[in-house]
Model the fold of this input.
Amino acid sequence: MGTPPPHATDGFWESTGATKTFTHPLDAELLTEFVPRTARVLDYGCGYGRLTAELVGSGYRAVRGVDRSAALIARGRREHPGLALMRWAGFPLPFADRSFDAALLFAVLTCVPDDAGQRAIVGELGRLVRPGGVLYVSDVPLQDDAFHRGQYERFAARYGTYGVFETEDGGVFRHHPPEWLRGLLREAGFAVLRERRTVVPTLDGRTAERLQIMARREPAGAPAESGTG
Done:
């Protein structure tokens, strides 16, 4: 997999976005059911290391955090000295195939509005997670309230995708049909094991429903399965 072009949203995450307080919490029950504390874990799109630090504090010792943003990684090193945080903007990441037992992808796809960028991320995690390992995704499905529907409709023509919208402070985000997220996982060789929906605060002080998906990396050629919980 080659290095993708810079994301159009990179500038936001080197400036205004790097000051944000991220809001998707770990579901400890879901995490510990599928990810033992002995697991080698990649926190991709780790930002300033919020969840990386939480994992280490919970007893996970082999955790690596990677993010595209130099500003976020610099913040993480200030706030969480000693964490294994790395800034790496392109693909492939500097790890061998099947290097990890689990990966986290928390509110990352919502920050990548284009299809190709999302496929590149999930595909790279499919390379790095060993067969039988898991990918724990937390992201934002399409919302059904009037405010969000208005945002989607307002920006649909500009971006060509219903669910992409801009925020007043210059961010560009994407909310997804759940079947799109499941399809990305299938393409990268993952089978959905569990899904959960909860309501979480957003970066702009509102609330939104989030969708958590726990998916298993299947051996090459294995049929995908799906399940909800």
